[in-house]
Amino acid sequence: MGVINQHIGDAFDEYPEQVQGGNFSARTTMPHASGEAYFVDELAHRYGVNPDLVLTWSLRKAFQLQKAARTVTNPDYKALEPRSLLNIKSDFLKQKNAIK
Description:
Blueprint: H1 2-12, E1 17-20, E2 23-26, H2 35-47, H3 51-54, H4 59-73, H5 83-99
Helix pairs in contact: 2-4
């Protein structure tokens, strides 16, 4: 359960790490506001709604709208996944391959 909670927390902070040339490096600066605040602000501003309304949306809907908005404004946009999610996927694939 802790891994799931960590992933949900990381999901709000889209750039928990920086990727340069395929190598991960930890971020060395603190954000001015929380990832959640930026997330809500971005969606409220983009769709012209009250931030309180954004908070009622499902995370799935909110993330899809955020991705759509960013893709429209930047066709080369590619969201980074938190290392925690990449590790979960990697472990899952390793287990699947070991079963064969």
